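Dear all,

This email documents one entry for the complex benchmark we are building for the journal club exercise. For each entry we list the sequence lines for every component of the assembly. Then comes the predicted three-dimensional structure of the complex as a token string, followed by one or two observations. Please use this as the template for your own entries, and keep the labels exactly as they appear.
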Amino acid sequence: MTKLLTFSIFWVVQASAVLIFFVPFAWGLVLLWAVSHFLRAIGLTLAYHRYFAHRAFQMNRVARFAWTLIGTAAMQKGPLWWAGHHVNHHRYSDRDGDPHSPMVSGFYYAHIGWFLNDARHERLAATNPVMRDFSKAPEIVLLDQYFAVPPLILAAVMYLVGGMPWLIWGFCLPTMTLSHATFAINTVNHLWGSRRFDTIDQSRNNAFTAFFAVGEGWHNNHHRYQRAARNGFYWWEFDPTWYVIRLMAAVGLAWDLQRVPGRIYREAAAVKARRAVAPSIVSILDAEIYQGVDLADEAEPV
Ligand SMILES: [Zn+2]
Ligand SMILES: [Zn+2]
């Protein structure tokens, strides 16, 4: 697909969301928006993000295909492309090499530009862990290559079932809102919010983005311990993707759920206590811990 075509389709779908003002309003259509937005958001976060990029749990192959298909219907390109770039985001967070950092390339490029004009980031190295391990699964490679098909099918089904109102409220509007829910994690969550952990990147926790991106807004937590199957580290941090993973585990569809280690919770408590007395001091030892040099276990009190 040429770059111009990608660019045109993206902006046509974005603009088509305004068509909601041209069809008669009904609360049922708002429900349709919610189902289409949140279900596909779970597909993206559960499969693309927590499974392919972070291997936060294992799942049944049929369930993996189903969630990946739902995620691909979000129109955010293919699972290997998405997750492979996301691995690079964590590797180079807010430094040169990060595919989307508002610190490195400005807000527009980090939010949308990188996704559309990704000449620098179009190809992923064969050594990228996502490419290396998941390009062996033919059904996933198929979705990755033909990523434009699931959104097209969704749009067609919406139109066939409910005509223009369903196409607009079940595809156009939620595809637009979901794109920004995802993109906001790359921009809003590196600019605005609270920082429980003093990570070397600018990641932040933000309840607003967590709601629309089904738990991904607890992004500072996630940058501190990216392997965990949950991004909300406490029960009060709304993380519906985690609830779905738990539910899948309860019925045997998912297993090997990666937990947040006790030392991370102790670190959170230690940072909180330290800030209470010295709000902005970060010691060299702390900086090493946050860069991933794992001294925390040795430093634990007996
Ligand atoms: Zn990030
Ligand atoms: Zn991540």
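Observations: The chain has a mean pLDDT of 91. The pocket of zinc ion (ligand 2) is lined by residues 49, 53-54, 86, 90, 222, 226 (CB under 6 Å).
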